[in-house]
Amino acid sequence: MIVRDIRMIDDRPVRFVMVPTVEDTFSFPASAVLADRPSVSRHVVAVALGVLVALGSIGWLGNQVVSKHVAAWTPSAAFACAMALFVLCVVNWKFGSWWMYPVALVLASPVLIGVAPTPAVVAVVGLAGLGYATWRGDRARSRRWARTAPLLESHVRTDAVVTDLARDAGSGSAPANRIELTVAATGGSGLTWTFTAISQSPAGGFYPMLGDPMVVWYAPGDVAAAAVCAAQPLVNIASNRPGR
């Protein structure tokens, strides 16, 4: 697989979903498209997560002060808070919104400023940076939704194959890599779609190869807007396919 820099935030109007069976590729994946629909619930989730992130930030960066008031507070507890923050950020990226970060900043900053300037700076810079990245991601989701929403009303199904595949240069040797795929419709129509996804190791998970079959549902009035389906048995673990 070739390696190249892949855009971190992808606003191309293509949604990708892996389905458990080949038969499932004959049903339009409405849920994949609806995942981008603006929702108040995303902001509600983000606010709730923001409270937890604020507490986690205080427990991690302000652990010296917390330990004076909580006898059982140890460096291990502070480390657990740091790990919890990572999980909360991932959950927010999938189900929340950028609102999580301002909420966390407002709640955590006054406490951390009273502890020491260095933890406060780390918290402000970290939360502000992640908040900006999430804001950009939310805007990309909105732009994508504006193009893919019409798929819910009208769509055309076509078979396709993977014609180009690249791994993100920034992924290193991690078992899960961001990849960029291009699939082309069969039958000589010349239609192609490019999108990013997460690839697992050859031993399991989503691990596509050139020539793998997929199904594309595209909008007749905007052929660039599409939902791409991959059947799990056809692009899954190495033992399912010879030559891996």
Topology (SSEs and partners):
Elements: E1 2-4, E2 14-19, H1 30-34, H2 40-61, H3 63-69, H4 75-95, H5 100-115, H6 117-148, E3 156-168, E4 177-185, E5 192-199, E6 213-219, E7 222-231
Parallel strand pairs: 1-3, 2-7
Antiparallel strand pairs: 3-4, 3-6, 4-5, 6-7
Helix pairs in contact: 2-4, 2-5, 5-6
Keywords: Membrane, Transmembrane, Transmembrane helix
Largest sheet: 7 strands, mixed
Mean residue pLDDT: 84
* Poorly predicted residue ranges: none
Tally of distinct domains: 2
Q: Write the element-wise H/E pattern from the N-terminal end onward.
A: EEHHHHHHEEEEE
State the helix count.
6
What oligomeric assembly is this protein in? single chain
Number of strands: 7
**Category from helices, strands and their pairing:** alpha/beta
> Per DSSP, what share of the residues sits in E-state strands of 2 or more residues?
15-25%
In which range does the helix fraction lie? 40-55%
Overall form? elongated
Termini, distance in Å? 13 Å
Integer-rounded radius of gyration: 21 Å
Transmembrane segments: 44-63, 70-93, 105-135
Keywords: Membrane, Transmembrane, Transmembrane helix
